[in-house]
Amino acid sequence: MSKASETVLEIDLKALQHNFQYLKSKIGSKVKTLAVIKAFAYGSDSVEIAKYLEVLDVDYLAVAYTKEGVVLRDAGIKTPIVVLHPQPVNFQLIIERCLEPSIYSPRILTSFIEVAEKHHQKDYPIHVKFNTGLNRLGFWENDIDYIIEKLAKTASIKVSSIFSHLAASEDIDEKEFTLNQIDSFKNISINLIDNLGYRPMRHMTNTSGILNYPEAHFDMVRAGIGLYGYGNSAKESENLKPIATLKSLISQIHMIEKGESVGYNRAYTSSDYGKTATIPIGHADGISRIYGHGKGHVFINGKKAPIVGNVCMDMLMVNISDIDCKEGDEVIVFGAENTAEHLTEDAGTISYELLTAVSQRIKRVFRR
Q: How many CB atoms are located within 10 Å of the residue 5 CB?
């Protein structure tokens, strides 16, 4: 690793390869892999991640919104891309860029058929989503007759896959709920397939589902957070490698007298003589104000430095009273050893939130 001379997000593509291959080792040889690279590939870089996943022969990619898929197509990505949460205003663009929409409600199905027919499409691939308990997006089981009726009246679209989403696959206390979701999806998908007269792919599992529920792997699995190095449990996280290291440096060191305050609103007052370091990263970069007041930390020369006071827009301050360091020394916000999970535990949130919040103004550096 190179030493940081500015705030950077260093992305280790070999770690991505390790994670991809580890997750692949958990599924059957005929099961396909869909890589979820929404939200800038969980805060890293969707284009570079997609390019590397193509080298690794990923079967599908998925994004949340149409614009994310357009960015990938413009960058030359050829792999099939599912848009998980499309809106009708973007359906023409979806067809123009050969993106594949998730169809999750009667309104969306009707709207997409209209656009597909207008553009003289035949068997355009769609992915039909069913709600089995997450209660976020998806058709209900009693919508099957409606779906079949709509499909029978058009040749413009064809179901490429049927899928659902597990709500609590990482929580062993919710195993019964998860198994009920899996059974529900089996019944729904078999019913739909019987009425379609052909067999689309089926997929249901996220990272925790891949690891915990092999009976739900079906024809394809969806790997999200696991690709980026987090397994939603301490045991599984040990088998994965975080791909992103957020680095910065010490801009300035201040000697703080007893009773002296630090930062906006005098949110920290020193109880004794000490030292603080100012780091050029703040809530505009994704380190939110929730991490202030001692709830977060960084690492400097291998030692934990607690965040003091309020996180500023472009800076934060840490207590270095017990750390031997100097201006210009490297700071690790999170990385392979001091992970995003460790940092978010202090603040009562999750790694997903921190990773996806890393600002696009922070320079990305890739290790191959």
A: 11
